[in-house]
């Protein structure tokens, strides 16, 4: 699968083979016994858990110790405090998802200045540069994910339809890319469609923002939300208010998978592969610690998930059985009610 | 350089301080803006103006909103001084880089700091209108997301080739020649009309050099040589802290220099650029001289300059030889320039230079071997760490340096916005008229194509 987007500084994506570990690399890492800390935006989402699983499995093979996993709770202050504290622990590397832009840029820069290798997941604060401020960014092809979401909505839209775009207010590389790609796909392939954008500040506000978008544009024929958790807030709010319109989004969370499989409002999802992204960032980290050349940006392609392939996609992405509700909808098991 | 109309004086009596003191106002504003002075005492010392004059000019600058004086600094005995700060949020700068295969956009504050940037693939060979529409569409998105209420003070665009001009002007009122496919397309006029802000066009070498000068390795040097290695090889030159553009804006086209490799004589572009690297790499793959590249071909992959570069970095002898040759040829040209210019710093940039260490090593070896010892005694040769961001940051600095150049600043400072500059007012009107004419009577306006399709 090809990568549609470019990196945060215009880099071309490096293929995953570029960061594959050889037996010699693994043996060298096992000998070195590196220490690594992980700082994530949250630990409660399925996405974060799968990233951690991919990281842990790879580091386990390399005898690399994870000395701490920090949950920042989406708070820049918590992330700055965690990074500053971890510098004192002097790990060989830190893997981090910057939860904001300029607010956390300096704290990340201080990590590299302290001689600790910094690997970023999904976001790069503006101004931080690969090579000098961080080793590499590992992310999904977020531009491609936005295009997948647009293509899912396309057949549901009447000619001349209006479409709502619920975008994230915060400055975040991944969500920016999805929004821009969605808009571009629509402008290129459906120039008859009019887009109406509204930004939500936090996940809890996404439902009311979706309703405001529908109320402000009564002719809305579809909605795109930049990731699944706020998308599900929007779906619930729309359903409560009696609105029926197709919604597409990014990331195959549990709730989103159930909604998609049950022929609900969700009509399609562009899904990341968080486990493989976890593997990729751990491999890149090991290569950097072994002083091997690493690419500035490693990107993994997204998956197009529809009602037809939601079961196998769920298994592929989450490496576990799909929720029972999904299996029932797919008529793979019998619904005994309430189970 | 055309002179801007002089603002009319008051009908009676002496002109106000604002009208008569624009030069000293500008000098003080630039000291504050560039961080050379942050307190009244420092301003008096750096500007060599008296206390009363500094006090008066600061009061004026505060009154018109260009600076704020509030925070307390560190006391050096006695009362702590108030810190003066330039308001970098008064306006924003829209920036874009047009490359053969990629479009980058960003939005910066008045210090040149990017709030965000975005890059996507394009084909610059496509029609000019569709790319111009895409730039406008992304600028609209940036404004809506980052500066919905902030005025655009300038737009700066980086383009692949040199931007030629017959005479230096403060503000562009038509699109200068920069690429054959864009000849006659009213790009500058479109942007001026839509955003009501002045537009600058510079070559990618010039903007990347400015980016490296202000935000990269060149921040603390006076003289720097910036060399971009790609399909074309070009150089940017910082002399005494300022970008040297040349009489026609075409300085640094070193890719045109004749060089010799074995029995072949051609231009540096032809014998050391990425086309040569890709061609020789493919040949090495097809003949089996490079097992690594041959394997790439066998697996259905393509062999281009990037693949050769990656193979060289992985230790493939044939690829290392190809890049070594490219680096030595570039090194000969750079050594000649180094002997002539005696820079503090030489920075290599571009995909070819940044994806491997071999070109850098070969350039270093050649430059150190062929230059006078005095030239190389403290000379640093390195790779850019800024990637494509250098072009965006540099483009922002092109606009900011132009807006705050004393020759431009003196005619807008009392209005507190460059959009009120009398010359820009007339440029804006001209651009609007040219655009209107193009829409109304496309066939009768030479060089301006008809408008087609809907506005983004």
TrEMBL record, chain A:
InterPro entries registered for this protein in UniProt: Peripla_BP_I, SBP_2_dom
Keywords: Signal
Principal location listed in the UniProt entry: other
Subcellular location: Cell envelope
Keyword Ribosomal protein found: no
PANTHER family for the chain: D-ALLOSE-BINDING PERIPLASMIC PROTEIN-RELATED
Name of the protein: Sugar ABC transporter substrate-binding protein
Biological source species: Xaviernesmea rhizosphaerae
Residue ranges of domain Periplasmic binding protein in the record: 36-289
One cellular component (GO) term of this entry: cell envelope
GO molecular function annotations of the record: carbohydrate binding
Entries under Pfam families matching the protein: Peripla_BP_4
Family that this chain belongs to: Belongs to the bacterial solute-binding protein 2 family.
From TrEMBL, chain B:
Pfam family name, one: ROK
Ranges where the record places region Disordered: 1-21
UniProt keyword Transferase present: yes
Chain segments annotated as coiled-coil in the UniProt record: none
Keyword terms: Kinase, Transferase
Single GO molecular function: kinase activity
Keyword Transferase annotated: yes
InterPro entries the record matches: ATPase_NBD, ROK, WH-like_DNA-bd_sf, WH_DNA-bd_sf
Name by which UniProt lists this protein: Sugar kinase
Naturally occurring in which organism (per UniProt): Xaviernesmea rhizosphaerae
